[in-house]
Amino acid sequence: MRNGAEETTVGELGEAGVLARILDRLGPSASAVLGPGDDCAVLGFGGDAVITTDTMVEGPDFRLAWHGGFELGRKLAATNLSDVAAMGARPTALTVALACPADTPVALLEEIAAGLDAACQELAPGCGVVGGDLGRAPVLMAAVTALGDLEGRAPVRRDGARAGETVCYAGQLGLAGLGLSLLFAECAEAGVAHRRGLAELRERHPAAVGAQLAPAPPIALGAAAALAGASAMMDVSDGLALDAARIARASDISLDLDPALLEAGFGVQQGQRVPLDAMLFGGEDHGLLACFPPDAEPPAGFLPIGAVRARAAGGALLLAGAACEPRGWDPFVSRVPG
Amino acid sequence: MRNGAEETTVGELGEAGVLARILDRLGPSASAVLGPGDDCAVLGFGGDAVITTDTMVEGPDFRLAWHGGFELGRKLAATNLSDVAAMGARPTALTVALACPADTPVALLEEIAAGLDAACQELAPGCGVVGGDLGRAPVLMAAVTALGDLEGRAPVRRDGARAGETVCYAGQLGLAGLGLSLLFAECAEAGVAHRRGLAELRERHPAAVGAQLAPAPPIALGAAAALAGASAMMDVSDGLALDAARIARASDISLDLDPALLEAGFGVQQGQRVPLDAMLFGGEDHGLLACFPPDAEPPAGFLPIGAVRARAAGGALLLAGAACEPRGWDPFVSRVPG
Fold it and tell me: Please, what are the domains in chain B?
């Protein structure tokens, strides 16, 4: 099912040919002194650099039957850009290491490249793919590394939250997890019926399915939060509860989430009803969780969802003042539904 | 064969537990303002930054039956450090994205981490692993991204060679390709006989097997060559002939390799006889190919192997003045022997 008879495969074109086709799809990085094509790309930084890396593997992390290549490319970029934003940095460059079977259509890699480029242009203008690598693997896998420029600011770490601060969140919350549950419930099987089911699911739940397959986190709000004085910030990728507990442990405080604020701010997103459980434990939101001191004005887009308290007996994570188990996503321990 | 009954697996320990064990094996980067553990690491640069990425997948790129984890870690670091060196930069940091089956022993990942760390300490002191990711995949795969600091120097690109310059090479040449041929010829089958054969092969051909399984390229010579005035430089990873042709095409000159100089400089390395064919077409050497103007003094460690000529009718690559086909490694087109 991977390939129709008429499509050129990666194995037929070879590494150099494929890379030439992919590079055509990629806009430049404004920070690149030297772009792709040499042993390394060269980047200029105005301040300290931030760097993060993430891998996605066909099967555990994505299904080509759900993602088109374009959406997959968008997700690959967005999930890494959000880590850069969460340090208060402006994303400047990506490198992309792809490996795939020899019978992979070149068109699929071109779509992935187009999705990477679209995500950069929409979410982080000036950021671009500056280098990459293409190898052979039994399934499609992609490792993206993202760089950002702190532009003279100090990084916003996860250990700076202090009692008395406001906990805020920006971005979609719980939608991506809801989308994954829906996809597993209704589109777990491959084939024609599956593709029809996927189209119907997209029509019924466009926000949830879109958030799962091609998230669009509020990347520019990362630097804005840093400028506004955020004391601690994280990209929420493994679920709000788990990532909130990480800030709380690192900062040695308790983070008290308010269900009423969560409901008010995120109970309905783009017409999609989102239950509290999905908000707390859904994962893959890639929004920004940040703490702001009382005298700071959170940038528009951040909504209050709780308060920072002195470390409570109940633990790192509280929900309406009561202990809350910070469960979430672990690629080896978690079991996807369905 | 992946796992003995008594070993803890990655699936049992989970991502957080494995990462904690791995981080214990890794020394710091001298350039890290903030090390692993947040959304991103933070790095300071004295000049422009260089960045490169490379993926290795179990099967096409390495066999666990040949590499121990330690040697694999060394190779993962060395192959990326050499790309940084080839720009004339000093390597400062690595990120490592690993993905593996759930039944992978944690001990294997610890050995890989120890190998990464050893390579940094030996080949590029001050460089360290600043971040990573661990996911699930059907086979072991690793994507390493390396960063380096140009420290105010201009990057040494591949397009700066000029007629009249001397072509030099530093590092092992052809040994790694020879090692791969020997491994395929004598140790292609798995099992007990294979392990005994591998031990014997290591005894008979330690330099060739070592160069293939755990190369130790002359990383510090990259910045030294830049300071000495190198006009063009590349890491030789796909074979001298192919990579020399890339410099020649990018610089619009012909690169004329001298078989007598190659024989004199690299005919015997660490007691191992190396045929000219292995030097030219072997691949995976990760040494430095550089061009120096007549008034430059190549740093000790670089040996002359040819001359830069005005673009000749014979093509980009010449051998003793005659045309030479620049064949080499392509992960999709090349067929490994055996």
Answer: 10-149 (3.30.1330.10), 166-323 (3.90.650.10)
